[in-house]
Amino acid sequence: MTVTTSGLTAVRAGLLDYQAAWAEQRRLHESVVAGTGADTVLLLEHPSVYTAGKRTEPWDRPMDGTPVVDVDRGGKITWHGPGQLVGYPILRLPDPVDVVAYVRRTEQLLIDVCAEFGLVTDRIEGRSGVWVPQDDRGPARKVAAIGIRVARGVTLHGFSINCDCDLTFFDRIVPCGIRDAGVTSISAELGRPVTVADVLPVVERHLPTLFA
Predict the structure, then answer these.
(1) 75, 55 Cβ separation under 8 angstroms
(2) Is 160 annotated as a binding residue?
């Protein structure tokens, strides 16, 4: 299913292998760079996979031999899998390119999505992504991750938001290289099921924030 809003095409790609999604990102990126393709966001789930960004340290990786896909985005290691909605915006950024501003807009999109479900989240200084603040349940917990790359003025990679995924997959790694904070999901925080199908249309509605 494809939805177009505010000049942005959102493609619901379903469950898609990581390497297949990466090939589609590269194809879309070339078309946007060439001016023959529209700004597009792929929205999907992956089969379970660990991906390591350029800043991943050896000690961040699984110690049990679990395979890891090395990728050219920023950031460190993370997990993708069922119950997590992944978004890959392939967008031309305005000149002059301001990557930090784009990351902040992506964070705001995710904060606004969580708010629609009644979950209060925020940024943490010095840490990317979107977080449930420290409270009586424990330290700050990351509910959405961001890892991007910009090449020739057009974005690659993107964000992931934990809806109702199995959080034990994060136990094998140091997620995003952060040892002193946890990982959570919308469902875990609210104490009720919130699925990818629930979150998907809300994310689509907030995609224009990426251009704000």
Answers:
(1) yes
(2) yes
* Residue 114 is among the residues annotated as catalytic for this protein: no
Q: Is 78 annotated as a binding residue?
A: yes
Known binder of ligand: residue 118?
A: no
Per-residue pLDDT reduced to its tens digit, 42-61: 999 999 998 888 878 887 78
Q: Is 140 annotated as a binding residue?
A: no
117-139: b (≥16 Cβ within 10 Å) or e? bebebebeeeebbbbbeeeeeee
What's the CA gap between 181 and 86, in Å, rounded?
21
Q: Where are the beta strands (DSSP E) in 31-153?
A: 40-45, 49-52, 68-70, 77-80, 84-90, 122-124, 127-132, 141-151
Report whether 124 contacts 140 (CB < 8 A): yes
- State which residues of the chain have pLDDT below 70: 1, 3-6, 65, 174-181, 212
Active-site residue identified among 114, 163, 165, 176: 176
